[in-house]
Every structure is written in structure tokens, then in C-alpha cells.
Amino acid sequence: xAIEPLHRWDLSPDEARALQRELAARVxxxxxxxxxxxxxxxxxxxxxxxxxLFAAVVVVEAGTFEVVERSGLVAKAGYPYVPGLLSFRExxxxxxxxxxxxxxxxxxxxxxxxxxxxxxxxxxxxVGLWLGIPTVGCAKSLLCGSFDExxxxxxxxxxxxxxxxxxxxxxxxxxRVSPVYVSPGHLCDFEGAERLVMETTGKYRLSTPIRLAHxxxxxLRRQGGAGGST
DNA sequence: GCGACAG
DNA sequence: ATCTTGTCGC
Length: 230
Description:
The protein contains 5 helices and 8 strands, in the order H-E-E-E-H-E-H-E-E-E-E-H-H. The chain is of the alpha+beta class.
């Protein structure tokens, strides 16, 4: 199951933004999210003065959160961090890690925005187009848009709006704790995105699969942080 | 022109 | 994202 390349990654910032506008037109954020048995989450980590990125994808069983499979790797960063262009830096290694999975999960959660992006193509949407599976963006902070502060209890939510358009949901996953910013990546609607995040969140602020991916990728970074593998 | 700006 | 100690609160 090889991933068919959609486009090149070595683009100038202006070219990258133009491509995002084209790709955003192909994103489907109206599809209802079906039952998800195998849930995956991806995350990326790196050290400050190092040009290597550590990427990981963790797959868990719905309900029990039992880890079914994990995929991790180290790769050279091919793009700098530019607000709004995060996927050009982190998507390549995430796609590579995903491609190494033995079995395809039903949905992929990404640590970042979905369509809640200035040009409606956050990393979750971008990766969703490449993979052709449902993806959901769950970010810890806001990139763009405005909203009314959601209620203080777990489950309380408020629509995220940008330029008169609905782009996501500000969701309180834990009472009295800062909310997370949820938005459809691809092949998923607002309700499905909210439901997936709520159903995968327990005693912590972040979705369990995302936390597991975060822990795993940091484990890889701290362990392989000194030198390469050559 | 000024401020904001996922990870 | 990462660099870092203590500290407030349940």
C-alpha cells in the first residue's frame, strides 16, 4: 500500500501557500465520521539545535486504548517552521511513519489544526488528502479565528469562526482546564471530530492516542538525541 | 501599517 | 517544538 505523491514539498513559502489554496478545495469536511475501531495519532518532536525530526504514529483499539501498533522514525527536517506552513515541515515524516504501519487505522488524529487554518489546510487536512482516510485536527493553541469562551465543564464547547465561516470547535475536554481546538481534517465533519476527541479523552486534557504518540516520539528523541544511526 | 502566528 | 525549578491546587 504505497502512498501516491500528491505534490512536491520543496516549495518556496509563496508557492506553498498557493498550493494550500488549491488543495483546500479538495478537502471534504462534510462527511459523517463512521465507526472507528482502530484509532491512530501522530506527533513530531525535535531538539533545538538539531535538524533532525522524530515522528511517530501510534494505533490504539477504540474503547480500551490498547496499543495495537507503533511506528517511529528520525528524518532530516526539510523545511523550517513557518506559521501556517507547519505541514511542509512535519507532514513528510508523519506520512513516512504512517506508511510503515502494517494495517491501516480507521482514523488519524493529528497534533495541530485541520481546516481551522488561514487557508483551510492545517496539517490534519493536508495529511488526510495524502492518505485518503478520515483525519481530525486537535491543537493545544489557536492559529486563527475567534470564539466565545466555552462553559467550565467537560464537554462544553463553542464554535470557532474565521471570516464569517465555521472552521472548528473550541472544546473543553476537562472541567476547569484550558480547552483544545478541534477541527475536521478530511473525510470528517465537525460533529465527528468533536465526538472522536471526546471519546478518546479521559482524565487528561489531551486525547489518549495523541498523548501516547507524544510520549513515544519523545522517547525516541531522548534516546536517539545524541548521534545518528550510521 | 500593526499585531498575530499550530508545532 | 525545546530550554528548565519550583510551586499552586485538588
